[in-house]
Amino acid sequence: RRCTDIICCVIFIVVILGYIALGVVAWVHGDPRKVIYPTDSYGQFCGQRDTLNENKTILFYFNILKCASPAVLINLQCPTTQLCVSKCPDRFATYIDVQASYRYRPDQWNYFRQFCKPGFNNPRKSVAQVLRDEDCPSMIVPSRPFLKRCFPDFSTKNGVLTVANQTTFKDGRGKTRNVTDLREAANGINNVLDARSVGMKIFEDYAISWYWILIGLFIAMMLSLLFLVLLRFTAGVLFWIFIFGVIGIIGYGIWHCYWEYDHLKGIPGSDLTVYDIGFQTDFKVYLQLRQTWLAFMIILCGVEVIIILMLIFLRNRIRIAIALLKEGSRYVCLILELHLALPRAEDWVVTFLLIAICISYWAVTAVFLATSGEPVYKVMANQTLCKYANLTCDPETFNTTNVTKLCPGAQCTFAFYGGESLYHKYIFIFQLANAFVFLWLVNFAIALGQCTLAGAFASYYWAYRKPADIPLWPLFSSFGRAIRYHTGSLAFGALILAIVQLIRVILEYLDHKLKGTQNSFTKFLLCCLKCCFWCLEKFLKFINRNAYIMIAIYGKNFCTSAKEAFFLLMRNVVRVAVLDKVTDFLLFLGKILVAGGVGVLAFFFFTKRIPVFAQEVPMLNYYWVPLLTVIIGSYLVAHGFFSVYAMCVDTLFLCFCEDLERNDGSTAKPYFMSASLHRILGKKKLSPKKA
Predict the structure, then answer these.
(1) Cα 657 from Cα 678, distance rounded (Å)
(2) How many whole angstroms from its chain centre is CA 663?
(3) What was the pLDDT predicted at 299?
(4) Distance in Å from the first CA to the final CA of the chain
(5) Gene Ontology cellular component (predicted)?
């Protein structure tokens, strides 16, 4: 062997180094606290340690009525002063009432001023000036924290929306308003809060049932392994039971259609044609026609004949497919016997760790890039005609400008995080690069796992004496060859796939952004593009998978391996189709059996229907939370095990096709296939293989 696709290998290493540099730059400029902590009007974080706001963890809005929706409050900027507070208001109050009573009710002023600007303690200042300068809010309403922000404490009483059991409140400007006026500013909060309550209950269920979930997943792992072992003996039985079951069901359908057709004979109106009655919204009308049942019977007869003919003409290829499935089970069992810690030693450990590292690095880099902006301050003016409104400003020099004179009450408040530097202008490009390299690395990790498994299974097939000539540690040997010689080829295949996946991501992003503004042609074009690139991605995954197998066998570069694998498959296209469908059916059946079996067991356990374990079942809010987790997790566990088995079968198939084309069973060119495959082909007795 020699190194393949060296140029791509060098580019891949350079990109990884650049990706590390991008992460370092993002780490230097980014600040995740901007995501964790809310920011007040002065650009300070609420709840940050070692600051004046350390004990003020919640963001309070002076006039929440100015905020259109929670999305504006969380993501954009609400045009009102925002302060960090230690707790949300728990009562209705207005500045006018508090100012009027502060002399004989100082406790009310002391409570109200904690929601005023820090340091403000002048209740004698006129109401007009206080509201103009926004020293204090004009009103406070009972609120509760959500997403570290104060929102009105909505509730429903007898079908009427209330806040603290009141339907009206004073707005602090001389008007009495209905609490429904707050609905616009906090639209959908009740639903979100209810969802949060459900989320807490779900979290509690996970906290007290996690070990039972792990036990269920362990049972699923054992069942998956048992199914793979039993496939060696039951693959043919399961397939033929299914085939004859389908033939029997279709046969019953033909008999039922004939019975209905004969039963309707002589009934008035049953001899009408579909053309005679035209289109009817009630489809039961068509079932009263003999012509309908005759058509059904003809269709089912055609399907039955096609299936029977396919079985007759493809019986040998079906037998080969079943034999390959049995051989795959034998190979997996052999790897177990060689103490390679399950057939996932590389794919579940190394591949999983690589993908986990890629996901973690991508997520951290994306967060740091998203928080790389500097605080941007803008002029917030109460007057709609102020020409300086929404212009950027500097809070340190704002009071020395003439903006406050031309626009009384105007303030320089924090708006968002951004910047005008070259780095900040290209953050979106950096995010795209981050996503692209992430896709490339994930696809490379998957390719490395597939090539490693293919090399291990191919070493078994091409061994003269099985298992004597198999390397002691076939998986580790194959992994070493893939890393040492074929990093460039694996990176090349992963690069092609990553480009297509990035295009699909961009198309989905455009579709989401343009939703609601698209015309019919744009929708049609985007739909066609998404469909085409989805098909292209599936095709490339198929080609890459078989190319990696050829790389593992012969050690050639990616393009040569992909070409040879493609033409080899095309020369055996019928066998490919039969093997693919037989394998898909049996493995899908295995996944359903594992997930369904463990799911039924979990259902009886969590609903306390197993008397022996009834006392061990934890008290749950929703028993379906651990149940669904066990079912979905069992399916994924089975999928993980069976993906190795599918890779084994695909590898054996390519080796089998190569064996048929390169060898003839003679002493000089003996077959490497097993005796069972040789018997199915109807060849002469296997020639003795050289030691």
Answers:
(1) 13
(2) 46
(3) 92
(4) 23
(5) plasma membrane
